[in-house]
Amino acid sequence: MKKGLTFSIILFLSLSALAQTPENKRIRILNHSDRSNYLLTYTQAGLHKTLDQGVSPLLYKGAIIGAGLGFRSEKSNRIWDLTGDFNYGTTTTEAKSDFGGFQNYHVSIDAQYLWNLDYQNSYPVKFYAGFATNQTLNFRVNENMFNASFGYDVISGFGVSAFTSKSFNIKGFDINLFRWFARYHPHKITVEYEIDLPILFSYIRPTYVVIENFVDGNIDLYDPERAEFATIGTVFQLKSNLGLSYHLRNQNIIRFGYLWQYYSIDPEYSRVQGATHLFQIQFKFQLNKKSLDHES
Amino acid sequence: MKVNHRIVVLFFSLIAFYSCENALMEGEPSQDPVENFDYLWQQVNEKYSYFDVKNVNWDVVYNNYRPLVNDQLSEQQLFNIMFDMLSTLKDGHVNIVSPFNVSRYHISHNAPENFNRRLLYDYYLRPGELNHFNVREHYYTTGSLIHQVFEVDEHRIGYIHYSSFSNTISDYAIDYTLARMHTTNGLIIDVRNNGGGAPSNIFKIINRLTDRKLHIYSSRLKDGPGHNDFGEVMKVYSEPEGDIKYLKPIILITNRNCYSATSFFAAAAKAYPNITHIGDTTGGGAGAPHGGQMPNGWYYRFSVTQSAYPENGTLHDFELGVPPDIHVDMAIEDELEGHDSMLDLAIVLLLGTE
After folding, report:
1. Whether the Cβ atoms of residue B272 and residue B210 lie closer than 8 Å to each other
2. Domains in chain B with CATH codes
């Protein structure tokens, strides 16, 4: 855990330094189109909860930490992006007689394509809607569960997604503090909110009885042949992300986000639910720099 | 900067929305003895796989033990009632694990011990004046396998002792051990007192003892809450593996303390024409265990599968043990003279097969 925190802090500091590199040290590709392509890197930390009734009636919760990478392309008429992240955490119950806990591993791959529904900018906020697909792998290990120590749920979802944002300009000002002078330059900030609601799913859960290390000598990680298809209801998944983007003068962006996601799978046995709260720090490196006069 | 108040309201609405999961995800712990007893009884009722074979009426068990449970019970009293309730299943794969005790069932209760480790090492494995075969080389410990070669009337008999299927067998260990056995006329595989472990180790050995694919046993998994709700029968096979194999006559020795993976190993041996199984019936344990947790945080496990080996065209469930082809117990008078009756019979049988 400590190693993970140290790594995240180093990653954060390194990326901060990169994002703030002076413009004269960077090769700039001037581009007058309205397309902005970003390389996304982010780190995140927060709280994770799991309630897997296949093995326990108890709620497990604990800290989680992770990092991700992605690509995002924004134009005035559409947005698409592709991101992937890995998170790790430990969760425990509040039972005083419980001396165990889960080691949790989460892998998530998301993609979305959204269209601008207000291309004429007739409303004060921008609003995009479209489709999103995601692949979520949740693995957890609790050695105290004997042959059921390995728990998992794998969800592939396809559904709708919406994104809204509103930008504000912060005026520049001077700071004069006991003969120490500094100038805060004008910046743009954007408040964003995004929500994904998958409707069609395929999922993999353990069988009616959770068992691994089976008598055929195979350890049952998960068998894709057991995948089930479902619509919203049997599986429910919601991903919501509230963010504040701070636009740097070099056209890169630092984004502070709060991601909440919830899922449940109820195949009429061994229902599983999971929820995650993650605070994110994201660095969006613009790959196609625009000429300054084009910037609004 | 002019802040739009609607955005502020929206922001706090979203924060409130984010705690919605608390209404959907309960799962608070409970120390209530009745709730915990009922939860465990119900889990066993819906998932345990051997009520029929054990001839246990689980409703009657509930009626016998449920009246003993009340809100005034201490943790230890509740644990002991659950311990007694689960003991009616007579299953070594059934346990409750609390911070202060572990419930268990002794599969070798009232059975002959049939294994004397001190005697085995002094009179058979270690070189010295006591050794029956005047072996000059120290016994080998190659990974988790202990092995020795006995020279009897110009015949060479190999011996391997494997004490636990929990100890992983590496490819190197099995290669080295079988290579050492290359010049022997027959091999004894002694798994007495092996309480089981990882089924994957069964295949590390058994796949080296055949040159063709063999149906070794079949298993099925509980797939519903009814006592007879099982999934499809799955056939399990052994397949030739590795460059170094042993296809000469083999004697397998078991006792009542052989359990779980060791019973699967003995069951698999039934399919091998070159293996003769001697000793005592194994302790059983054909039901692979599922684990879980109770509302108070204690853990449990119990059998959720059924397994059977094919013999003479029918499947034989071995939850109650795998019977040997030749039954033999250690005789006390032999033991007093430094002889292991089971091991001696194995050697005689191998000498007679040539």
Report:
1. yes
2. 117-286+304-352 (3.90.226.10)
At A16 the pLDDT is 44
Tokens found for residue A170:
């912060």
**169-228 of B, contacting A, C-beta below 8 A:** 198-200, 202-203, 217, 219, 221-224
For residue A257, give how far its alpha carbon lies from the nearest alpha carbon of chain B (Å): 12
Nearest to A207 among B14, B99, B221 (CB): B221
What contacts A68, CB < 8 A, 6 or more positions away?
Answer: A40, A41, A42, A43, A44, A83, A84, A85, A86, A108
Q: Nearest C-alpha of chain A: how many angstroms from B159?
A: 25
Taking CA–CA distances from A237, the nearest residue in chain B reads B21
Nearest Cα residue to B288 out of B302, B309, B272, B274: B302
Res. A296: pLDDT tops 50: no
Query: pLDDT tens across B250-305, in order?
Result: 999 999 999 999 999 999 999 999 999 999 999 999 999 999 999 999 999 999 99
What residues in B contact A95, CB-CB < 8 Å? 29, 295-297
How distant is the Cα of B122 from the closest Cα of chain A, in angstroms? 35
Q: What is the mean pLDDT of chain A?
A: 86
Q: SS in 3 state form for B202-255?
A: HHHHHCCCCCCCEEEEEEEEECCCCCCCECCCEEEEECCCCCCCCCCCEEEEEC
Q: How far is CA A264 from CA A236, B159, B168, B278, in A?
A: 5, 54, 37, 52
Q: How far is CA A254 from CA A5, A159, A251, B8, B153, in A?
A: 20, 28, 10, 21, 84
Record: contact A96-B25, CB cut-off 8 A: no
Other CB atoms within 10 A of residue A24 CB: 6
CATH fold of A2-294, please? Lipocalin (2.40.128)
Q: What is the mean pLDDT of residues A259-272?
A: 93
**Subunit contact A216:B199, Cβ cutoff 8 A:** yes
Provide the 3-class DSSP secondary structure of residue B11. helix
Segments in chain B below pLDDT 50: 1-2
